[in-house]
Design a protein that fits this description.
Blueprint (H helix, E strand, L loop, with lengths): L3 E2 L2 E2 L3 E2 L5 E3 L8 E7 L10 H6 L9 H6 L8 E3 L5 E3 L5 E3 L6 E2 L2 E2 L5 E7 L8 H17 L8 E3 H4 L13 H6 L3
Parallel strand pairs: 3-7, 5-11, 5-12, 6-11
Antiparallel strand pairs: 1-2, 4-8, 6-7, 9-10
Length: about 180
């Protein structure tokens, strides 16, 4: 069971990413975006994702890292394959996870959303531990931020369909959404 106090999830390890900004004045949190990430692509474990969000990724460790070494991105939250939660940005701040995006004619989804990255790929099944943590976390976030409803929980592919495919075909939306309060 997760709880939020002062825009931080109590049960999460907090590692402060420099990749965030203030939300626009008066904007309320009203969208939850589910992503996936694995670094190197298709490989799980290790600290590469963490290092990427902290701008500490050693580009010499893998050829793919050279392609992303100059990117400045973050997510509010990251769930590893075991369901462990790490928070990188306060939920009241604007994490840089969605990029060019739009939801229901509202652009710049980073302004009003919370981003959750799942360690995974579009094609590898997510773990039971990830679903358990994600469901509990989502219920907590919907309670803490009433603007987030089941209808306002989406994948990255829903807000940037020309650019993104995550969380991918391997994500079981029915299992996830049917378990939400």
């Amino acid at each position: 069971m997760f709880t939020v106090q002062n825009h931080y999830v109590d049960q999460a390890e907090f590692l402060a990413s420099p990749n965030f900004s203030e939300r626009p004045r008066g904007v309320k949190i009203s969208l939850l975006v589910i992503h996936n990430i694995s670094l190197p692509p298709g490989e799980f474990g290790g600290n590469h994702v963490i290092d990427f969000f902290l701008n500490k990724l050693d580009s010499s460790q893998h050829p793919f890292f050279e392609k992303i070494s100059d990117m400045k991105v973050s997510s509010h939250l990251f769930l590893d394959r075991k369901g462990k939660l790490i928070q990188f940005v306060g939920l009241d701040k604007k994490a840089w996870h969605a990029g060019v995006s739009e939801f229901k004619d509202q652009e710049e989804c980073n302004d009003f959303s919370i981003g959750i990255e799942l360690e995974g790929t579009d094609t590898d099944p997510y773990t039971d531990a990830q679903y358990d943590s994600l469901i509990s976390l989502t219920n907590c976030l919907m309670e803490s931020y009433p603007g987030i409803t089941k209808e306002r929980v989406v994948g990255h592919s829903d807000i940037a369909p020309d650019r993104k495919t995550d969380p991918g075909e391997s994500f079981n939306w029915s299992r996830y959404k049917n378990s939400l309060i």
